[in-house]
Design brief:
The chain has 597 residues and is α+β, with helices and mostly antiparallel strands. The protein has 18 helices and 22 strands. A five-stranded mixed beta sheet has the order 16-15-14-17-18. It has a four-stranded antiparallel beta sheet with strand order 7-8-4-9. A four-stranded antiparallel beta sheet has the order 10-11-12-13. InterPro entries: DNA/RNA_pol_sf, Rev_trsase/Diguanyl_cyclase, RNaseH-like_sf, RNaseH_domain, RNaseH_sf, RT_dom, RT_RNaseH_2, Viral_Replic_Matur_Polypro.
Length: 597
């Protein structure tokens, strides 16, 4: 193992020497930032009715001012900043790095609110790697240095990003404005990504099989052979240098069989979560505020494709957020979920890169209102997971029978899986008879629009084949088994669960008291009033007000509920003049959860 590692290191050094001998030296980042030669000055437009924003600079520590001072002076000398007088102003926040140096950060949230939104055409990091085939085994990763600074900002737009600065040397206060596309502006990634993509269209790769992927300013070369990877890397570096871009030599990973790209560890035919990313998340202490918990969930959400049952694991954590309190009140379930999520993250498996030349298999089921799925492809006698899918059902679907919730889950999982399959055939394994449930019972719960949508996804697509099986766990699915025919009868289960109570009669009981119920809701002088009453033909048994937001229909139901509560242990008939109480019983019965799906 040690000898193999030494050979790999020696090979990397030799490849690095070959590349450096052939590359234009100006491509490597230095103190002087690049300038994209074909880029026109970027114009920023305000939203209709947008007004200048003025956010005062908050106090800064002396050490922070002294730390960021040399950076600002250097930017002024390089023409990245200039002095100005502007009716805009937003604060800066010097950020200290682990090595003791500083980063200049500007709080542009106020500017982002008043400037026009651009549709983000940035690649989806989840599906970007679907373009890589298993035959591509050599990789190079290039990171552009200070990428946004390569694009000039139109003179008329520069004052929008002004900030206040007091020189630590002279004590002179002034306003400074960016002459280049600033970091922190909401549209900067989209604007830069489009410009770089436009420039890369004119790059002609050398002969050999390979792929070039771009995510904003991060580039990945993937080729079949080591020699091709060297040639492509040299060609792309020279192209970028001549176009005015600069590449970080420190961050470059050139001609390797395993690289870190977008936080993923990419190798031949598979991707895993980078160890640094996993450790950073798992070292996060238990959040104490809603903001801290949202940050933690945002970090884990990036890794959700690697975590089976992710939606179930985070459900107790999202319940903490919905309580409405700023400071979190941790429950046993939430604490358990927090620890389980970290454990699942550290044991996250490697996922196969989607191979769109081979068919896919999708295992789909629903649990606690969450659509869960595993997208996989055959690897020898087994199946290798490509992605673990997890998404909540909407509020309406959560109230459906279990078999119909399974239909909704399949529709959601198929839509998510198509982001990876790109039209390749997909066999979907489910434990419910999808078409029969949809056709026979869908009309009772689904709107016409939703019914047609599900029908189009499940029935009318050539790339989807539904297979009903008794497989109910991911281990059996990934073992390659197709399972046995399912014995669960969806239609029978729904019929038994949601039929009206057999003991409910539409004729009065003999030798029983007869009670009458009613509820009403009306508006007087702009204020709604609601109430209910339970009576006999001679006296009022009980009456009372209801909350002001109660509708007339709900008031009638509340009256009936109260009558049933008062009649406990008695023999009585409850009636009202409008409608039939049997409808209410039919609606309430499913709350007993009789279905076994």
């Amino acid at each position: 193992m040690l000898i193999t590692k030494e050979i790999e290191v020696a090979s990397e050094k030799e490849n690095f020497r070959k590349i450096m001998d052939q590359v234009f030296p100006g491509v490597w980042a230095s103190n002087i930032p690049g300038r994209a030669k074909n880029a026109l000055p970027v114009q920023i437009r305000l939203k209709e009715g947008g007004q200048p924003v003025r956010v005062k600079q908050y106090p800064l520590k002396k050490e922070d001012i002294e730390g960021v001072g040399p950076i600002i002076e250097n930017f002024l000398q390089l023409g990245l900043l200039r002095e100005c007088q502007s009716d805009f102003n937003t604060p800066i926040l010097p950020v200290k790095k682990p090595d003791g140096s500083y980063r200049l950060v500007q709080d542009l949230r106020a500017v982002n609110k008043v400037t026009e939104d651009l549709y983000p055409v940035v690649a989806n990091p989840y599906t970007l790697l679907t373009r890589l085939t298993p035959e591509l085994t050599w990789f190079t990763v290039l990171d552009l240095k200070d990428a946004f600074f390569c694009l000039p900002l139109h003179e008329a737009s520069q004052k929008i990003f002004a900030f206040e600065w007091e020189s630590p040397k002279t004590g002179r206060k002034t306003q400074l404005a960016w002459c280049v596309l600033p970091q922190g502006y909401k549209n900067s990634p989209t604007i830069f990504g489009e410009q770089l993509a436009k420039d890369l269209e004119s790059w002609e790769p050398p002969p050999g099989e390979g792929q070039l992927l771009q995510y904003v300013d991060d580039l990945l070369i993937a080729t079949r052979t080591q020699e091709t990877c060297v040639d492509w890397t040299v060609s792309l570096l020279n192209f970028l240098g001549l176009q005015g871009y600069r590449v970080s030599q420190k961050k470059a990973q050139m001609v390797r069989q395993t690289v870190i790209y977008l936080g993923y560890e990419v190798s031949a035919g598979q991707r895993t979560l980078g160890q640094d990313r996993k450790e950073a998340i798992c070292q996060t202490p238990k959040p104490q505020t809603v903001k801290e918990l949202r940050t933690f969930l945002g970090m884990t959400g990036w890794c959700r494709l690697w975590i089976y049952n992710y939606g179930l694991l985070v459900k107790p954590l999202y319940a903490l957020i919905t309580e409405g309190s700023r400071d979190l009140q941790w429950t046993k379930d939430a604490t358990r979920a927090f620890n389980q999520l970290k454990k699942a993250l550290m044991s996250a498996p490697a996922l196969g890169l989607p191979n769109v030349s081979k068919p896919f298999f999708l295992f789909s089921h629903e649990k606690q209102g969450i659509a869960l799925g595993i997208l996989a492809q055959n690897l020898g006698p087994y199946r290798r997971a490509v992605a673990y899918l997890s998404k909540q059902l909407d509020t309406a679907a959560k109230g459906w029978p279990g078999c119909l919730r399974a239909v909704a889950a399949v529709a959601i999982n198929i839509q998510e899986a198509r982001k990876f399959t790109l039209g390749q055939k997909m066999t979907v394994l489910v434990s419910h008879t999808m078409s029969a449930v949809l056709e026979a019972k869908g009309g009772h719960w689904l709107s016409p629009q939703r019914f047609l949508k599900y029908q189009a996804i499940l029935v009318e697509q050539d790339d989807v084949e539904i297979v009903v099986t008794n497989i109910v766990n991911p281990t059996s699915f990934l073992s390659g088994s197709m399972g046995e025919p399912v014995i669960h009868d969806c239609l029978e289960t729904i019929e038994a669960t949601y039929s009206s109570c057999p003991d409910l009669k539409d004729t009065p009981l003999e030798d029983a008291d007869t009670w009458f119920t009613d509820g009403s809701s009306y508006v007087v002088s702009g204020r709604r009033h609601a109430g209910y009453a339970v009576t006999t033909s001679r006296e009022v048994i009980e009456s009372g007000p209801l909350p002001t937001n109660t509708s007339a229909q709900k008031a009638e139901i509340m009256a009936l509920i109260r009558a049933l509560e008062l009649a406990k242990g008695k023999r009585s008939t409850s009636t009202r003049t409008q409608g039939m109480h049997s409808e209410w019983f039919m609606l309430m019965e499913p709350s007993g959860r009789k279905e076994d799906c």
